[in-house]
Write a structure and sequence with these properties.
Elements: E1 7-14, H1 32-39, E2 42-44, E3 47-48, H2 54-63, H3 67-70, H4 97-103, E4 107-111, E5 128-132, E6 143-147, E7 150-154, H5 158-173, E8 180-189, H6 223-236, H7 244-247, H8 252-278, E9 285-291, E10 296-297, E11 303-304, H9 316-319, E12 323-327, E13 335-337, E14 341-342, H10 346-354, H11 371-374, E15 386-390, E16 393-397, E17 401-406, E18 418-421, H12 439-456, H13 476-483
Parallel strand pairs: 1-8, 1-9, 2-13, 3-14, 4-5, 4-8
Antiparallel strand pairs: 2-12, 5-6, 6-7, 9-12, 10-11, 15-16, 16-17, 17-18
Helix pairs in contact: 1-8, 5-8
């Protein structure tokens, strides 16, 4: 008898560090459903993202590749969608998770925020397509929706909307012979204007009216955030106000609304879990909850993520993510791991657990299957380190150290490396890069970074060797200074 492959449910949140959940130690934010899920699943305490922007991380999870391989180095700027090639998708031509699963007999669905190209037409590999017009979230309410060839406006909260659509998909496919893949990237909690101004409309807002917000640090404004604001403002043109990155760390109203949106997501996840249980699907489903990237909520003196500072901030708050995995009936209930993992590893994990075959073409995939850890065979995991990149900054994290390596060839924008001793300085406050006692450590970590990117990066997408970014770069002035006036993002590498 043919054994049916496991269903897959992959839930993403937007802009959420791990420390904002009760199961990761937060005592202020109300997340009962995710806390229960963690107790019944396998939880990763040291999960990170390969890039702290929405589009690159989503691209990495769906391909198992680094930004220096797939070319998405920054957020896809949907304000420029009129300039996109017709039907443009950033991942066209690459092996993607939905396409591989579809080729292996899966019914596939995107329900939520896309942010990797044209929202009106489905990305290859998705049978069902329900998304919003704005990848860069402008509001939690009254969003234009594209659903399987038709478009309309939905007045209510987007988390409620996508949760309802996801439950409908589960119900419709509960009796199918085909397994299903549900990709549910929520456009929340988000944490940016203007979405954060809508606190009175969120039913969880009252819960935080008198919250002391003790889990949020009150730090002085980062000079790097100010430098970045000046840089981005000079090249952004009209249409976006970056000043919130400077004022938000001490804006209690914004912080409380962010908390309320986390509770909205938690409620949505609870409904998805309930639906799977009610339909008797959970034991045959690989259920993954994670985030695209983290978000600094005042840590290191700024609000934001990715390139919200210059040079880019790759500290834990902006790169740490929740990662909770329930592997159906094979779950090691209530287990946790401190091994260094990446949400990029989700790609290989899903293919490994489902037994689906990837077409052997394209670049070497740095994604690693988490199955050995889930089965508590961590000796098979290999190097206990994770790698990330944010245009001009690359980082390697181990249990003991975090090393930030900067690209040095710019004359206009000189920047320095950073090294942190995580055992003695877990908040990454003391830069030891000029401490001679750590020179060997620095050299070793620098070599690890160089070897890693030499092994995996593709020259056309590797900014450090003159490659191009797809569609957008927040550091265009920097790269023009390095590579010359003709350096500019592209829509396709094949055209060069």
């Amino acid at each position: 008898m043919k054994i049916r492959k496991k269903n897959v449910v992959l839930i993403f949140t937007d802009n959420q560090q791990a420390a904002t959940l009760g199961c990761y130690g937060n005592e202020e934010i109300y997340t009962p459903n995710l806390d229960l899920l963690s107790r019944e699943s396998f939880t990763f305490d040291n999960a990170f993202c390969p890039n702290a922007f929405c589009s690159p991380c989503r691209a990495s999870v769906l391909t198992g590749l680094l930004p220096s391989q797939h070319g998405v180095h920054s957020w896809i700027d949907d304000r420029k969608s009129d300039d996109w090639p017709i039907g443009w998708h950033a991942l066209d031509g690459l092996n993607t998770l939905p396409q591989i699963l579809k080729n292996n007999g899966y019914e596939t669905a995107l329900v939520g925020k896309y942010h990797l190209g044209e929202p009106k037409t489905p990305m290859l590999g998705f049978d069902h397509w329900i998304t919003m017009s704005d990848g860069h979230v402008r509001s939690f309410y009254r969003n234009e929706i594209f659903e399987n060839g038709r478009n309309y406006f939905h007045e209510g909260h987007s988390v409620d909307f996508f949760t309802s659509k996801a439950v409908s998909f589960l119900e419709q496919n509960s009796q199918n012979e085909k397994p299903f893949f549900l990709y549910l990237p929520y456009p929340a909690p988000y944490g940016h204007w203007p979405a954060t101004k809508e606190k009175d409309l969120c039913r969880h807002s009252k819960r935080y009216e008198n919250c002391k917000m003790d889990s949020i640090p009150r730090e002085s404004l980062s000079i790097e955030a100010i430098k970045n604001y000046d840089m981005v403002k000079s090249q952004s043109g009209k249409g976006m106000d970056y000043s919130m990155l400077l004022r938000a760390p001490n804006d209690i109203e914004t912080l409380r609304n962010y908390y309320a949106q986390i509770s909205m997501v938690d409620e949505g996840v609870g409904k998805i879990v309930t639906a799977l249980d009610h339909l008797n699907l959970m034991s045959d489903t690989l259920f993954i909850f994670t985030a695209d990237h983290g978000l600094s909520l005042g840590q290191h003196g700024f609000w934001g993520h990715g390139a919200a500072t210059f040079p880019s901030n790759l500290h834990r708050a902006a790169h740490s993510i929740p990662l909770i995995i329930k592997n159906g009936k094979d779950t090691k209930v209530g287990k946790r791991s401190k091994l260094m993992v990446s949400n990029m590893d989700i790609f290989s994990t899903i293919l490994d657990i489902t037994g689906c075959v990837e077409v052997d073409t394209g670049p070497v995939v740095p994604s690693r299957s988490l199955l050995p850890i889930l089965n508590e065979f961590s000796d098979n995991w290999g190097e206990d380190a994770v790698y990330s990149e944010q245009e001009e900054t690359r980082v390697v994290r181990t249990q003991k150290y975090a090393f930030f390596k900067r690209f040095k060839n710019s004359t206009e924008f000189p920047i320095n490396d950073e090294l942190f001793d995580l055992e003695n300085d877990p908040e990454e406050k003391r830069n030891l890069i000029n401490d001679s006692k750590f020179s060997e450590v620095k050299d070793k970590l620098s070599a690890m970074l160089d070897d890693f990117f030499a092994k995996y990066s593709k020259s056309e997408a590797d900014l450090w060797v003159g490659g191009k970014a797809l569609q957008n770069s927040t550091r265009k002035k920097f790269w023009v200074d390095v590579w010359g006036d003709d350096w500019s993002p592209v829509y396709s590498f094949e055209k060069n």
